[in-house]
Design brief:
This protein is an alpha/beta fold and about 350 residues long. The protein has 14 helices and 13 strands. The strands form four sheets. The protein has a seven-stranded mixed beta sheet, sandwiched between helices. A two-stranded antiparallel ribbon has the order 5-13. Strands 7-8 form a two-stranded antiparallel ribbon. α1 packs across α9, α1 packs across α11 and α9 crosses α12.
Length: about 350
Amino acid sequence: MTNLVVLSYGSQKEYRRAVLAVLSFFSFYDAPAARPEVQVIIYTDRSDYFEQFLGDVPVQYVILTPEQQTAMMGTVGYRHRIKAVVVGDTLVQHPADNLLFFDSDTFFIKHPGPLLASIRPGVDVMHTVEFTFNDIAAQPLPHDKTVADFVRMMEREPFQTTRGAERFSGTQQCWNSGVLGLAPSVAAYLPDVYQLIDHLYANSHWHIIEQIAFSLVLQTRDQILPAIDYVYHYWEGDKKVAADALLTEAIDARFAALPYSEKLAQVRQLVERLPAAIPAYLAAHREIGLKQDAITAFNADHFWPAYRAALAYLLKVPSDRKFLKDVLYHTKRGLTSRG
């Protein structure tokens, strides 16, 4: 058995993305009865939304209350820590099963059978290599730091893990964790993943610490294989905006009422079209990129580039009052942090 695990909470946009992710899997996974058995597990705060679209799919829902979400973020209050805890919870609750976790902002573009078959003890799956730390040493991080500072922090002293004193270095790779294929044996690694998340985030506030922790732990214990040939991951903010606009038109009440076979047929057509439709939408709506540039710069505390992008965006979309409130929030935050 392989558990297909999705975490989706907080907004209808998130739920809609997750519906596409799950149905895209089954739009390809149409082999005979001899195919490996799978079950979908969705961690969410709104099972009722999914039931209208996934009534014909074998789904187990795990309801996350706001209190549980807060607890999963740990003492460091890191939102993406929830994902690591969900992965660990699934491995513990299903100790005999493989796990294939995929982010809600993914969809399958190829039959996933070989990907499922590749998951075994000693061999893990992640989406793709994003970078080697030393190769992006000059990249800025929050609080006027850079990746070079992060590397020095990693290399300065060993971490105490379940293997004893363990060192990590800037020559190691960071993989994108939009997909995580794990055998039950990986459950033994999770305490180290949690510890690294808490320590590294507290000392850097780098928003991708969750995938850094998985990358460091998995590559020092197992072989990692890429899933990029099977899964399209639109994790960038501007791509999400484009995808959300396209999915709003495709996954609606009319779609929910279709027979299951027709849903799969339409999803198959949709995922074949989206990799080209997303950049085409962005080219036709250049204001989306300006807004994302501003958000990215604000989150990294790079205020002047953020203001330049924000002004250019507001000249195009002056009616976006929510974004204007976000600019004022970051301005206040920046003034407070500078005393």
